[in-house]
Known about the structure:
This protein is α/β, with parallel strands linked by helices and 285 residues long. The protein has three domains: 9-121, Tetrapyrrole methylase, N-terminal domain (Cobalt-precorrin-4 Transmethylase, domain 1, 3-Layer(aba) Sandwich), CATH 3.40.1010.10; 124-229, Tetrapyrrole methylase, C-terminal domain (Methyltransferase, Cobalt-precorrin-4 Transmethylase, Domain 2), CATH 3.30.950.10; 239-284. The protein is 43% helix and 18% strand. The protein is built from eleven helices and ten strands. The chain has helices spanning 25-33, 42-51, 69-81, 102-110, 123-131, 148-158, 174-185, 209-218, 239-250, 255-266, 270-284, and strands at residues 9-13, 36-39, 61-63, 85-89, 115-118, 138-143, 164-169, 190-195, 203-208, 225-229. The strands form two sheets. It has a five-stranded parallel β-sheet, sandwiched between helices. β8 and β9 (203-208) form a beta hairpin. α6 (148-158) runs parallel beside α10 and α10 packs across α11. The protein is elongated, with a radius of gyration of 23 Å. 37% of the residues are buried. Its EC number is 2.1.1.198. Keywords: Cytoplasm, Methyltransferase, rRNA processing, S-adenosyl-L-methionine, Transferase. It catalyses: cytidine(1402) in 16S rRNA + S-adenosyl-L-methionine = 2'-O-methylcytidine(1402) in 16S rRNA + S-adenosyl-L-homocysteine + H(+). Pfam families: RsmI_C, TP_methylase.
Amino acid sequence: xxxxxxxxxxxxxxxxxxxxxxxxxxxxxxxxxxxxxxxxxxxxxxxxxxxxxxxxxxxxxxxxxxxxxxxxxxxxxxxxxxxxxxxxxxxxxxxxxxxxxxxxxxxxxxxxxxxxxxxxxxxxxxxxxxxxxxxxxxxxxxxxxxxxxxxxxxxxxxxxxxxxxxxxxxxxxxxxxxxxxxxxxxxxxxxxxxxxxxxxxxxxxxxxxxxxxxxxxxxxxxxxxxxxxxxxxxxxxxxxxxxxxxxxxxxxxxxxxxxxxxxxxxxxxxxxxxxxxxxxxxxxx
Length: 285
């Protein structure tokens, strides 16, 4: 495809998440034919184009990321207003999926410009295909908060969801995230830790959350990580089981921690467990 052959509009290009050969033929055509190129990381896109022999032909690659979106967006919108084709690529994977681009797409839609997906690689979908956990229903969480308190609050909100949880995590935070997941969701929830997907050292670790926490402590993983956690159990717990778990955990942790753990273990709302825990504690005093 020659430069300028594309119809005017915004094209969202999914790029490889590791293996450079995972780019699609359509993505290469779009990169070759777009009037304007934009990227989360200009060096990454330039290198990808070099690998596949896609010439710039005098075009510059405009940087567009979370830190410069407000200043870079007007220029891209001006190109769309002039009837030009604009191709935008994330650093890796699909734009807008835990990556920048939402504001650009919304602005383009509001102004009535065509927006076209050029689909391809996605770490979330790649992990779901290899993990062996249920795929009929899943929830993409993306990255959890960096601080433990906020992270546990989000995990508590997710604890009763009957869908496989898909979480992105960095190698330096995965140990803390697994520790919090064990506390909130319970040690026995089955999970998969997928790292370096499509790359030379791709690895998937399977087991309970407790198993994975121990594995990460013994052998810290490198590279970007997708953590998948099986859905909350469908069966409602017996009240006596909930009370027993609350009593047991109150002997070894704070009320707040015990409530979070029991809510995650049984797929219950935290406020309901909290009220029951208060009653049991008052009865014991």
